[in-house]
Amino acid sequence: MDQGSSNKGQPHESLYLVLPYLPLFELLAMAQTCKSFNDALNNDILPWLNIVVDDKLRGSRVTDEILMKITSKAMGRLRSLILVNCGKITDDGLQNVIVNNPGINKLHVPQCTGLTPEGIIKAVATLNQHNITLKTLKINGISKITKEHLQTLRSLLNAGDCSSIDVGRTSGCQGCKYCVSRCEECGKCVGLDDEDNEVACEDMLCEDCWIKLPKCDYCTKPYCNKHAYKYCAIPGSSNFVCEACYYLTMLYMC
After folding, report:
1. Using H for helix, E for strand and C for coil, what is the string for the chain?
2. What is the average per-residue pLDDT within 194-220?
3. Tens digit of pLDDT for each residue in 171-180?
């Protein structure tokens, strides 16, 4: 059997490069499409090092048990954990993930209403015990946060030089970049209405900046200017596609 016939029906190699960029539910869907993807996701930890879960449209299906099972695929090397609207995740569930993945440097848990300020502080303190200081921590939407809680987090994050934190304001805020989601372009606090503004990179944008920035021709997601170097130009056009869409188009062009 020649090489061409042996590869017949197999996904193009370039498509595997997309896997680390996919959010959780899309990643799990890819695993169901063919045996090759399923094997790749079961045998390679790279797609599992940065977990992104947005449970807003799925009725909070992600529980502590499910989260633990998913994050275990990183084999203790999870780098970033982004949970959005995961209302069934509790302090204990988050702590179990942190204990088993002490190298996490990015923790975003906006609108995870099952978490408490005390649970967030315990998670950050656990990371500190392993000499890990979070690069970013986003906790907007966590209820009953007090000034004392935020001062404790500032201390744990070595963020003593930032301004006082105010999580209750969405404009003119002097909030700390660690705890309050801010637009990468203008620096304005990002409110709940802005969380639907999907971006090709991992940063957040307010609605005004999202509208102004050029969009990927395929998925209509913009890059912030800091990540504009990731543009993939379209030959003969002034437009662009994002990295993920570029690899998908390579598949269909082959």
Report:
1. CCHHHHCCCCCCHHHHHHHHHCCHHHHHHHHCCCHHHHHHHHHCCHHHCEEEEECCCCCCCCCHHHHHHHHHHHCCCCCEEEEECCCCCCHHHHHHHHHHCCCCCEEECCCCCCCCHHHHHHHHHHHHHCCCCCCEEECCCCCCCCHHHHHHHHHHCCCCCCCCCCCCCCCCCCCCCCCCCECCCCCCECCHHHCCCCCCCCCCCCHHHHHHCCECCCCCCECCHHHHHHCEECCCCCCEECHHHHHHHHHHHC
2. 83
3. 344 445 545 5
